[in-house]
């Protein structure tokens, strides 16, 4: 069966996600393996940042790909596959958070950016980085989910505003506003910490 996929598509990297989904919908299960290979770690990382538990994130990521397979015949390649995939992941993560009725800490180390560069180099920098990471987690914990999801999708996952708008089902302006508001709230908390 693997030979069939390779003969249909000699280079897996050259096949778009959308083409793989169409082929999966037509009965080629090997296409799912390629999609899982491309997105598994990204989805686990995204969900982990939402739920704060690696085991739970792996379980949810597995459920994401089960749903992709289950709904393969309904997929319409009118939007990017990644948008559809992140929408499924975000919805499952939010369901888990609602089920728990609590919001766990999330690591947003990439948000440190220029704030951390103002700290002088030296032996204490690693300790300060770790402490700042914890402060960022605490700040994210306090964000409402409607701000948390777009912020993670933009600043951690690097998705475009348009993709985020489709994933969270909000107008583009609302998405930009929520991301800016989340950043401002985090910056205020970090300013207090950094002085």
Overview of this structure, please?
The chain has 195 residues and is an all-alpha fold. It has two domains: 1-104, RNA polymerase sigma factor, region 2, helix turn helix motif (Rna Polymerase Sigma Factor, Chain: A, Orthogonal Bundle), CATH 1.10.1740.10; 105-195, Arc Repressor Mutant, subunit A, CATH 1.10.10. It has ten helices and no strands. It has helices at 2-8, 17-25, 30-51, 54-70, 81-100, 113-117, 125-141, 145-156, 161-168, 172-194. The longest helix has 23 residues, at 172-194. It is elongated, with a radius of gyration of 19 Å. Residues 1-7 and 102-116 have low confidence and may be disordered.
Summary keywords:
Arc Repressor Mutant, subunit A, Rna Polymerase Sigma Factor, Chain: A, disordered N terminus
Query: How much of the polypeptide forms β-strand, as a percent range?
Result: under 5%
CATH topology of the largest domain: Rna Polymerase Sigma Factor, Chain: A
Count of β-strands? 0
Number of helices, counting only DSSP H or I runs of 4 residues or more: 10
CATH architecture of the largest domain: Orthogonal Bundle
Could you outline the blueprint of secondary structure elements for this entry?
Blueprint: H1 2-8, H2 17-25, H3 30-51, H4 54-70, H5 81-100, H6 113-117, H7 125-141, H8 145-156, H9 161-168, H10 172-194
Helix pairs in contact: 2-3, 3-4, 3-5, 4-5, 5-9, 7-10, 8-9, 8-10, 9-10
């Amino acid at each position: 069966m693997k030979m069939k996929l390779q003969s249909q598509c000699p280079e897996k990297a050259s096949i778009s996600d959308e083409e793989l989904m169409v082929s999966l919908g037509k009965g080629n299960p090997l296409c799912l393996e390629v999609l899982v290979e491309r997105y598994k770690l990204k989805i686990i990382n995204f969900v982990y940042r939402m739920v704060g538990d690696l085991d739970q994130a792996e379980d949810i990521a597995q459920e994401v790909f089960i749903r992709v397979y289950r709904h393969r015949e309904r997929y319409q390649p009118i939007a990017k596959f990644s948008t559809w995939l992140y929408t499924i992941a975000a919805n499952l993560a939010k369901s888990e958070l609602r089920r728990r009725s609590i919001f766990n800490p999330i690591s947003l180390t990439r948000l440190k950016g220029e704030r951390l560069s103002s700290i002088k180099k030296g032996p204490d920098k690693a300790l300060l980085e770790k402490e700042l990471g914890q402060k960022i987690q605490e700040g994210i914990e306090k964000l409402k989910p409607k701000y948390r999801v777009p912020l993670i999708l933009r600043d951690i996952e690097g998705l475009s505003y348009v993709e985020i708008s489709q994933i969270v089902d909000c107008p583009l302006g609302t998405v930009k506003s929520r991301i800016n508001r989340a950043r401002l709230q985090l910056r205020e908390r970090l300013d207090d910490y950094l002085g």
